[in-house]
Amino acid sequence: MSQGRGIRLFLVDGSPNGLITAEIMNWTGHALTGPRTKLTELVQRPECGRTGIYFLVGTDPDNALRPLVYIGESDDVAKRLKQHHRPEAQGGKDFWERVCLITSKDQNLTKAHVKYLESQLLALAKQSGRCGLLNGTAHDYTILPESDQADMAFFMEQVRIILPVLGFDFLRERQKLSKPASPSTEQTPVEAITFTLEIPKYGITAEAREVDGEFVVLEGSKARDKWVSGSSYTSYRPLYEQLTEDGVLVADANGMVRFSQDQAFSSPSAAAAVVSGRPANGRTVWFEKASKKTYGDWQSEQVEQVTDATE
Predict the structure, then answer these.
(1) Which pairing describes strands 222-223 and 257-259: parallel, antiparallel, or unpaired?
(2) Residue 141 pLDDT class (50, 70, 90 cuts)
């Protein structure tokens, strides 16, 4: 079982849509985030005068499934944000809608530290595949003593924990689940339970697992070769088309469409729709592989077992 963490959030102006600070217990880092409309107030905060890293985040007009992100560093973040706020013709950046900056409460982050963090975080963002990056060629900055690199590795792990809490998922690691999970001698962990979806008419068989709140379809799973036209409910059609464009859904030598990698979805129904090429109720079409129960029945059983144990 993962160990819990205490995170302290503070609504600076009392609004969930305004400036927010975040801290993790026993971590020297400090996060500050807010919308671009609050930039005037944000740059006046003392954190903005420190050395740190920052993330500019906006909507990708060419891909509604992921954000556009720019990752930067500065020893005066306020000055750099003012530059980015200028019109694009004057060297600014128009795309961003929100900003998040990470500094240190003890002010021990140096220019060398943040350049190293920027380099490593850019690599992590590329590996995750959860965002489009607007940075140019990233430099592999490794000019740090070994002890400092270890400290920054810990610092980055805390950044990856705190960003999703603030609504930024682009550094979350892509799940790799194709290999069977290790068996448990006490109780099978949720991550080890496999769900299947079959459409014999089209030779489709897909497998998935639940990990970290996401429903992950495994690499090699088959899917419909096109979205069924004429469907009255098409909210998942852009998702199907985007995964095709991104090379997640690819045609194999037999003309079948398969998943080229493990792919996380927000729900079983989203995964079922992409596999089926049409709207589908994930609670009824996915089956737990061992018991043959529908996902809905299996999940209800888990809830009932927990309820019975606490009575």
Answers:
(1) antiparallel
(2) confident
